[in-house]
Model the fold of this input.
Amino acid sequence: MFSLMIVDDSNIIRSKIHRAHDRQRFHVVAVAKDGAEAVKLFQDSQPQVVTMDLTMPNMDGIACIETLAELNPEVLILVVSALSDQATGIEALEKGASGFLLKPFSEEQLREALDELTEHLDD
Amino acid sequence: MTEDKLQIFIDGVSRYFEHTEGNDLRVGTPYLAANSEPVSMDYTGIIGVSGSSKGCVYFTAPKAMLKHMILSLGEPDTSEANMVDLVGEVANTISGNARRELGKEFMISVPVVVSGTPSRVHLPADLRSYVVPATWRSYHAAVVICLQR
Done:
């Protein structure tokens, strides 16, 4: 089972990811409403996988990805965002993200994206 | 604004509603409206735009529609906080879709949500906005685009 942290400024999206993740494979260890809170929670919760919004107050997703990847280069970060331009996607990958899921998304799309992200890991 | 550019915003709102139950959004004929009387309903999610275009894009909807949408998304909590959250997310999706089409120079802010008082939506008085009417179930909402190059 993989440990999961959810980072999104939308309560509805946080709740949706919480409901939709595969409980057989993922265990939610932390939930953050912006990048700054995510960095604080990351050290204590040590998630293996993070879902990350990009447009957030305080610290945006790109800066947060960079910080989390520095703290733990092994962490798998799935960007979950309405921002879908190529430049943003490339920047997120360069900073340390491993995958991208476009908002809005279905529960099935989320599960597929998380499965794809972790398919090479042993749980 | 060109027809193609306007279509980008119509596609954005359509894309959001693809994930609601029934996916039955109907988009009406866009029209120009004076900024002196902005179109505004119970909750309005506003995205500031800078860079290649300047102004704002907003999604405005009645409370009953947002409550129904929240439930159709599978979320049982229809509190005011979640209505504020939802109207901001719709605006964010519309502008995010526009950024994909218009490039990273189309810079967008985090959503700001205005609730309750239509007079609090302030737009440049010397400009006009494009209003895209949208009907979901029996509810009427709108996407408003106020941009200058």
Q: What stands out?
A: Chain B touches chain A at residues 15-16, 18-19, 70, 73-75, 77, 81-82, 85-86, 88-89, 92-93, 95-97, 99-100, 103-104, 108, 110 (CB under 8 Å). The first strand of chain B starts at residue 25 and ends at 27. The two ends of chain B are 9 Å apart (CA to CA). The CA atoms of residues 47 and 110 of chain B lie 6 Å apart.
